[in-house]
Amino acid sequence: MARLPRLSLPGFPQHIIQRGNNRQAIATSTADYQSLLALIDDNARKFSVAIHAYVLMDNHFHLLATPDTAEALPQMMQAIGRRYVRYFNDSHGRSGTLWEGRYRSTVIQPEIFLLACMAYIDLNPVRHGLVAQAHDYPWSSHGHYAGLRVDRLVAPHPLFWTLGNTPFAREAAYAEMVQGGVAADRQLALTQSALSGWALGDALFVADLQTRTQRRVSRMSAGRPPATSS
User: Fold this and answer.
1) What φ, ψ does residue 104 adopt, rounded to 5°?
2) Are the C-beta atoms of residues 10 and 70 closer than 8 Å to each other?
3) What's the CATH class of domain 14-210?
4) Domain ranges of the chain
5) 3-state class of 174 per DSSP?
6) pLDDT tens sequence across 77-102
7) H or E stretch covering 18
8) What's the rounded Cα separation, in Å, for the pair 111 and 36?
9) What angle is formed at CA 129 by the lines to CA 155 and CA 118, rounded to 5 degrees?
């Protein structure tokens, strides 16, 4: 069965997951995390990709990003992947592949899923038992949005500004949202959509996306009714 081409549409936020090969570590030291962050920052700027949220884990990372062009995200991820593998292999005296194949990603409907995706990303270290609270983890964008530090990598999506009229109000509202967690069904939808490559949104959003690309954006073509059992 042929691989599904990536869905990369300019101007739409995309949830991206890149895993280590066979779940192996991709970062084992502060220098590793710093190097990966620097590569993401450099190449996001080079290829005009806005990074709205991120988390770097020991064996995978998540990004929430909006590319300016259809080619921007693949170019950015290819550059990050190749350069980081060289760095990691040289630093740790190893050779061979580091990544579990190509990165996974899909387009999400911002009005419904963008803020939930940001919270989902921030809470990844909590779900994995690494920290008790999202603000305790240093390798995510949560500190920026919670007002704990300024992160030059982060480019807030316009929807973030709707959380309040002042920086303090937005930070407090966002921290409260993250503290409240992400519903299990939304968490599952965010994970499965990124891994499968199918767009995540309501029927109107998916139908509109389908008019913008020849690549199928959902398991069922837009507008086709589900089959019924006899």
Assistant:
1) -110, 145
2) yes
3) alpha beta
4) 14-210
5) helix
6) 999 999 999 999 999 999 999 999 89
7) strand 14-19
8) 30
9) 20
